[in-house]
Design goal:
- The structure is a single chain.
- Helix content is 60%, strand content 5%.
- α1 crosses α6.
- The radius of gyration is 18 Å and the shape is extended.
- The longest helix has 18 residues.
- By secondary structure, the chain is mostly helical.
């Protein structure tokens, strides 16, 4: 990257190389591209989450049980279930897998 006097990028250098379709990097690049699409299309959804909902979503992405979330976040299991339901609605996720992919895209 080359920056102007205000620290804003002026120019970025990139390079391209062919990868074999079965190379492990191909799968990683596909995941990064998918995450980038989520970031771009779901930014407003992410911003609509409260701090506590983001904490719950981070726990979901790590596979934390509802019982452990309740204990770690100083909330009741009912409250955690309510946060989960609200998160799912706010980010328009149909499955827990979609919630996890969303959390990963936003680095939670």
């Amino acid at each position: 990257f080359f920056f102007d006097e205000d620290g804003k990028p002026l120019l970025a250098l990139t390079f391209a190389t062919l990868l074999h379709e079965h190379h492990h990097l191909t799968e990683k690049v596909d995941r990064l591209m998918e995450e980038n699409l989520i970031l771009r299309s779901k930014q407003q959804h992410f911003l609509s989450l409260t701090k506590k909902e983001r904490e719950v979503l981070a726990c979901i992405s790590k596979g934390t049980s509802i019982c452990d979330m309740a204990r770690n976040l100083f909330a009741s299991e009912l409250t955690i279930r309510t946060h989960r339901r609200n998160i799912k609605k706010k980010i328009e996720a149909k499955t827990e897998y979609e919630m996890i992919r969303f959390a990963q895209a936003f680095n939670l």
